[in-house]
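User: Predict the complex.
Assistant: Input components as received:
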Amino acid sequence: MSGRIEIAERRAGNVDIVTVKGRLDAGSSEVAQERINRILDAGGRHLLINLCDLDYISSSGLRVLLATLKRLKADGGTLRIACAQSQILEVFTMAGFHRIFTLFPDEADALAGFTAEP
Amino acid sequence: MAFSGFGDMFLVLLQMICVIIVVAYLITRTASFTQVLDGIFTWKGQATLILLFGALSIYGTESGITILGATANVRDLGPMVGGLACGPVVGLGAGLIGAAYRFSLGGFTAVSCSAATVLAGLFGGLIFILAGRRFIGMHGAVLFAIGMEAFHMGITLLLCRPFDQALGVVEGVAVPMIAANAIGVFIFAFIIANLITERQTKEERDAFLSELERKKAELRIAHEIQMSFLPERLPDVPGFELAALSLPAKEVGGDFYDAIPLPGGRTALAIADVSGKGVPAALFMALSRTVLRANALVSRGAREAIREANVLIAEDAKSGMFVTVFYAVADPIERTLTYVNAGHNPPLLFRAGGGRPEELKGTGIILGVMPEAEYGEETIHLKSGDLVLLYTDGVTEAINPGEEQFGEARLIETVASSLDRSPAGIVENVRDAVMEFSGDEPQFDDLTLMALRVV
């Protein structure tokens, strides 16, 4: 199973923005984790994951987000998630993730908060 | 051997080529030669190779075709190949053997031919060093052979007197000698290049096989851990009928289920899905299951059991491991089910009266993420015939060849159509439906099901 996924990276100031489109499931999570790890390995400390065009997330997708959060917290970094998709937010709520992640309805909002931080 | 016509000459050359093929095959299969390919240069190995390539040089002289007292021959072949493939020591050694033999035969080209043979070995060895202490490859070797033999002709013209006689010899033997040596080196180079590729392929294959072996062992271990932590048989659940089934995926996920008898005829039920795969997931599953079991027995209620289990699991959870758990206490006297859903797929409650099933939704965060998390608890009242179906996402996320998911809708439909069956029958029915749906698509995640019916 390949899992249709599209991952794009770009930078805005000191923020690395990772946009994940499609399906973040057992088949595609490894790829996503690798891409994110590469950014963190390269010294990225402010990460914005844009899930606005994500159609589906499974528990392995949640694990990617959680591992990223744990790593950034340990390194003194920050992670924000932009997402307004109701089906994704529903999974977040089911897992209780809305309580540990900083969620924003879109990328602009999430980015605005970032730059306000020192 | 003296021949008059070119036809005879080429017949002899053909015969020489056959001998060279056999010799090339045998030399390249010796332990001494493969040692050199591995970059190991021992005195014993090099001495053996000097003798072998020296003998080939003598054969080259002996098998030659005499023209006007000079011989068209492949004497330089042994030293050239020895030098090219095994370095200057072997090249020079073989060259000296071949040269000494040639020199002993005398003739007016003795000096130039002997010198050329020594230089052939030496130059071959220098090319070996220049190529980074390895064989230069087929094209380079053949070009070197052509150049070397042309050079051989050059020093014959330069050193041998009378010049007219030397010119006569060179005119006669130049073309066949250059051709014969080039062909000889080509044969060697071809066999050596093949041998090198063969050994590389074998090395890669061995590495791949041992990696595969390791992976297989890891899968087996993960599978065994997982299996040893599933209940061998479910306990009797007073007032209820319970069935469970777990189909681990090839790359084991970390699903588990449990049924723990509690005081007062009550039973604690749990279904859980650990994030991740393989041995780490299996170990995390073993930890979670043990912690959950211990807390089920000592805690005051479902909420407390999960809250305390979470504290312990979160302390141990590394690198984003977590576990979703649906935990419920079934009470046959009160006919209630008190549950905590820590981020697990909502179980489905099918009421005996029919209608759409209710979802037993989340009451708290998944375990292992937030040590200080608090959990909610819900109690539902049950009637005879009500059925609760617990499952992991391996069921709803099973895909078919068209990459469609089995999904909750199909699950509900499958269960609803078999509500007249026993819990065991319903569980099997769901499993069959998922398998049929997936077709040839490999099972990507563990698939775990539990069905609980009120008697």
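The CA atoms of residues 244 and 450 of chain B lie 4 Å apart.
Let me know if you want any component modeled separately.
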